[in-house]
Amino acid sequence: MRLRHSIGAFFYLNYFTFMKKQIMLSVFAALIFISTASAQSMGRTYKTALGIKFLDGAGISLKHFLNERDALEGIAYFWSHGTRITGLYELHFDIDGAPGLKWYIGPGAHIGLYNTKYGDGAYVGIDGVLGLDYKVNKAPLNLSLDWQPSFEFGDGRGFSGNWGGFGIRYTF
Q: Which CATH number fits domain 2-171: 3.10.28.10, 2.40.160.20, 3.10.150.10, 3.20.20.70?
């Protein structure tokens, strides 16, 4: 029985690793397509950005500004513990004397889908975000660094201050 469980875990981990690689390749292919198919944001501001966010694993990040100050960000995060999908509402504010650099803050929510070793199931939670966002002038590139504390509901869950990361996104 133990051997059967070990073989199942082996195939699950290999499948999960394969899927992460497939998703990352798909994101890079989409970025290349977008770069040839749409106008790039080459100034100090942007409307939409798509890219990757790094911390303990990697996530796909899509950020879209509703107006000059308010933005929505969706993150699909993949790592060895499972998958987490997060939605954030961000309020951006200029930093005097630093063109292209803004700080932001906001609320959000997530659903986490974890493997057997880290909770085996789906959990929901609330999030906050505090960070910096920089749009590189004369290049379709956006960089961000943020902290996303969260509280997850369920047995053995609770507060986590380990979320956030460094984002690299293509702007259009």
A: 2.40.160.20
